[in-house]
Specification:
The protein is built from 2 helices and 13 strands; from the N terminus they run ββββββαβββββββα. The protein has 224 residues and is of the alpha+beta class. The two termini are 24 Å apart. Mean pLDDT is 87; it is low at 1-6.
Length: 224
């Protein structure tokens, strides 16, 4: 068990790269966050680090907000959202970084929202033969997996060591499978002990099975 003792309050800060909305307390940072990279000093990049074009009064240099390297406008023209660095607006990135950030934006817009909305599972602790019906969701600051039923648990995401998705419906020909559960292993705070939880989507109650499957798929992507 754990406690979310740090608030979710945020503040607006201005960096050389742009405006960022960051947690007031560093301890409340999302485990998916990235620090801003140091910029390559102007004096160390007389040429574009992608196409080798020489910089002059006409060809100006620009820094990619994700990698900090120096490029010409042609090689660093895309402005793409960068939620992992908490930027308020899309920021300039090189082509390679922009591609990564675009994929991550989809992750933030879809998978994380699914996880924060939550889903219902039967949860079994360790080797127990008893399970408890619980609502499972990701906390607003993305730092904890919160489980609520008759009991209450909060597992810090960075303490999770293994996520195994359980499926059914596999056929040798590669037929469709569906996620029906998950085995989660995590380190118990303050010890070297590894605990385990098993999550199973219910067959005989009114929760939305499709929602549970979507939640499990999102959790699988988080683990990657």
């Amino acid at each position: 068990r754990g406690k979310m003792s740090v608030g979710d309050a945020k503040k607006l800060v201005r960096s050389p790269s742009g405006l960022r909305m960051v947690p007031e307390h560093r301890a409340a940072r999302s485990p998916f966050g990235l620090d801003e990279p140091p910029w390559v000093p102007d004096k160390e990049c007389p040429r574009c680090m992608q196409c080798d074009t020489k910089f002059d009064f006409i060809t100006r240099k620009h820094h990619c907000r994700r990698c900090g390297k120096c490029f010409c406008d042609k090689c660093c023209s895309k402005k793409v959202p960068l939620p992992r660095m908490c930027f308020v607006d899309p920021v300039r990135q090189c082509a390679e970084c922009a591609l990564v950030s675009q994929k991550e934006t989809e992750f933030y817009d879809k998978q994380l929202k699914v996880l924060m909305n939550g889903a219902t599972f039967f949860v079994t602790l360790g080797t127990s033969d008893k399970s408890e019906l619980m609502v499972c969701r990701l906390s607003n600051n993305q730092r904890y997996l919160v489980l609520d039923g008759d009991s209450h648990y909060e597992i810090e995401i960075i303490q999770i060591s293994t996520v195994q998705i359980l499926t059914e419906g596999f056929t040798p020909g590669g037929g469709n499978t569906r996620a029906i559960g998950m085995i989660l292993q995590y380190k118990v705070p303050g010890s070297e002990e590894v605990a385990q939880m098993k999550f199973t989507a219910g067959e005989d109650f009114s929760c939305n099975r499709k929602l549970s499957a979507s939640w499990l798929a999102a959790m699988h992507k988080v683990s990657k």
